[in-house]
Write a structure and sequence with these properties.
- By secondary structure, the chain is of the alpha+beta class.
- The chain is 22% helix and 29% strand.
């Protein structure tokens, strides 16, 4: 993707002017949020027991796709989230999306498999702070405390679906549909009121796996 086109990308949360509200978290802030709104999302579909498919994808990613449910796998190409027995989501740098998409499509072109670019349909946010688990508990029915580091879960919060990925003990990354970004943000902001929510930059609320994939424009 060219720099000119990349510069035209607009955050799905632009109406809330989050950059103008960025602050440095203090001990008073029990929940901290930062937007990771400029990444690539590629959906991979294929059979886990198809050796040719698994080898073809591994040749591009540098590692085999995870077959254990709910796995979060860091590769040289990006972060792979296990979605279902025949579906994975690759989160990558936006600047690397086009080359990865082309390489993956070429690798599986003669196989019973599919690669789809869903970068226009998804976005993400880092949620951390001492009470981030309490906030999540209020938002949905999933047992978030049972989500170990290196695991992800797709669940429902109120009226929208969301994927929660845990890569360290300090917080989680929330992946959700851009079309529901306004709704999801309002829900987060309202629920976080008792926790003195702080909006900060990705660097100050860093996730060890996802934040390196975020690129400013």
């Amino acid at each position: 993707m060219s720099k000119a086109l990349n510069a035209m990308l607009e955050s799905p949360l632009h109406a809330f002017d989050l950059p103008a509200r960025v602050a440095t978290p203090t001990a008073q802030n029990r929940v901290v949020l930062s937007e990771l709104g400029n990444m690539g999302y590629l959906v991979l579909r294929g059979k886990a027991d198809d050796v040719a498919f698994m080898q073809a994808v591994a040749g591009v990613l540098g590692q085999a796709l995870p077959t254990q449910p709910m796995t979060v796998l860091s590769t040289t190409a990006g972060v792979v989230l296990w979605v279902s027995p025949d579906e994975w989501l690759l989160v990558c740098k936006r600047s690397a999306r086009d080359s990865l998409l082309a390489a993956l499509v070429a690798a599986v072109q003669d196989l019973f498999a599919q690669v789809v670019d869903n970068s226009g349909g998804l976005t993400a946010m880092r949620l951390s702070g001492p009470d981030h688990m309490l906030l999540l508990r209020q938002m949905g029915p999933y047992d978030y405390e049972s989500l170990a580091v290196g695991r992800c879960a797709s669940t429902v919060v109120s009226k929208t679906g969301i994927t929660v990925a845990r890569t360290d003990e300090a917080g989680v990354v929330l992946v959700f549909r851009r079309s529901f970004a306004d709704y999801t943000w309002r829900l987060l902001e309202r629920t976080a009121l008792p926790y003195r929510m702080c909006i900060t930059s990705p660097a100050q609320c860093a996730d060890p796996v996802f934040t390196p994939l975020f690129e400013t424009v």
